[in-house]
Amino acid sequence: VFQDVGRQWRALLDGEKAKQIEAPETVAEGLVDYTMALANEQIRCVVQAETIRDETGARLTRAHQERFRAELSQTMDIFMGVAEAATQTLADIVFSDLRPITQALYTADWYQDDLLQPVIETLKDYCQDFGDHLDKYLCRRLMQDLLTRFALSYIDAVAGKIKFHKGATTEKLHSELHRASKFFKEHMDGGAVSETLNVVRILISLIDSTPAMIFLEFFSVKKQYPDLPLALIEDILAKRDDLEKAQLKSIVDSLRQKSKGDAGSSLAKQRTLFSKSKSYPPLGSS
C-alpha cells in the first residue's frame, strides 16, 4: 500500500511540476507551499514509523522482530523517497525561474549587466519560505542542492554560444563568486559552500592560465577532480579570445595525448561535482 501511495505522490509531483514549468500562467498558485507540506508530512511519517519500529519491535518475539524491523525500515525508505522527490521538485521550480538568466551566462548581456542580483533576490525569496516552513533536515538538503545547481550552471553554460574575454571574464566571475558565496554562507556551513563553489574557481583558473601553464593547470585540477571532462577544457580553451588557432590546436592535442586511457582508469570513475554536469558527461560514462 505504501509503495503504491508513494508512486502516486511521485507521479502527481511530476505532473504538477511539468505544468508549473511549462505553462506557469495556466496553473493555480501554491504548488511550492503544497510541495513543502507534502515533504514535511513524509518526514513525520518517517519519524512515526521509526517510533513504531523501535517501540513495538522490542515487544515482539525474536522470530518476528527481524521481519518487522526490515519491513518498517523499507516503509521509512518509501516516505523518505517521496520527501526527497518533493525537495527535488522545489529545486526544479526554483531553477526553472532562473533559467533565462543562467542561459545568459558569458553572453553580451552578462558582460554588460548585473545578472547575478536578480538570481540572488529570487533565491532569497524562495529560501526565506523554505527556512520558515520546510523541515530543517530537508531544508539543509535542499540548500545543498540549490548550491550545487548554481555552481554547475557556470559549468554547463560553457557549452553555449559564448566568448571568454581575457581579464574581463575572470574579473566578473571573481566578483560573482564572492557575492554568491556570501549569500549561501548565510544559509549553510561555510566549508560546504567553499567546497561546492570550488568548481567555479577552477573555471576561473583555466580561463586565466597562460598558454604555457594550461597543461600543468589541467592535470593539477584532475588530481582533485578525476572525472573532469576533457571536452569541457577544450570548450573553455576554444572560447578564449587570447589563443591563436595554431596555439589552441597544439595545446588540445597535447591534452588529448596525455589523457589517452583515462576513461577506463579507476580514478576517472570517481564521481565529483563535475559528474552532475548536463552539458559535459564525465570520463568513463557512456
TrEMBL record:
Lineage of the organism: Eukaryota, Fungi, Fungi incertae sedis, Zoopagomycota, Kickxellomycotina
Lineage top rank: taxon: Eukaryota
Natural source organism: Coemansia nantahalensis
Gene name tied to this protein: SEC6_1
Name recorded for this polypeptide: SNARE-binding exocyst subunit S6
